[in-house]
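Pilot study result, target chain (223 residues):
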Amino acid sequence: ITAYYNAAKYFKSTFNSVIGQTFPWFEWIIVDDGSTNEKDVALLEYFAQKDSRIHVYHKRNGGIATARNLAISKATTDIIIIIDADDLMEPTYVEYLYISLLCNPQASWSYTGLVAFDGAQYLWNIPFTSEKEKKENILIVSSAIRKKPILGIGGYSEVLKYYNEDWYLWLRLLANGNFPVQIDQYSFWYRVNTTGVASIVTQNLKIQELNKQLIEKAAQNVP
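Predicted structure:
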C-alpha cells in the first residue's frame, strides 16, 4: 500500500521497483491523499493503467495515517506491505518478506535493513529489542505486516496529522503482544526527503512536543 501526495517527481522509480518484484502475486493499493497538482494525479493514473494489479483511490488530504488506513481497508490480502511513493525495493524484497512470515507464523511483521539515499547516505540495520524501540525508532516504515494484528489495534492512529505514525504503530503492536522478525540484509532503499513528514515533526516545536507525549505514553505499555 502507498500513500501518494504530489509525488510524481520520484514515482516512476518506485513504480519500476514494485512492478519488477520476483514475487508477482500482489495487489498494489495507492491512495491519492488529496494531491493539489493535476499533473501529479495524471501521472499516477497513467502508471496505474499499465498494470491490472494496481488500484487507485482518491480522498481529501488528511495525512499519511488516513491514507494508509483507507488502503488497508481496501486490501483483500492478509499481509500488508508499506511502501512510500518515493522509496525503492530490491527485486526480491516482497518475496523475502513473505517467506519470512511464512516461516515464522508467530511473528506479526517482518522487515530488512535499509539503504538511505538522496538527502543522506547511510546503512541502517540495528538488532531489534523492545527496550531499544522504546527509546528510538529502530524499525523501518516499509515492512510486511499481517492484517489481523494491525486491525486489532485500530490501524494507524489518526490522532494527529503530522507525527511519527510508524513509531507509534510499532509501540502499540508490541504492547498488544506482537513482535517482528528481522531479515539480516539491506533490501529497502529509503529516500531521505528534507521536506517530508519527518522534517515537519522535527521543525515544529508544538508538533514535536505532542509527538513526544504520544511516544512516551505508548512506550510505557511495551513489555
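One observation from the pilot: The chain has nine helices and nine strands. A full batch analysis is planned for the follow-on phase.
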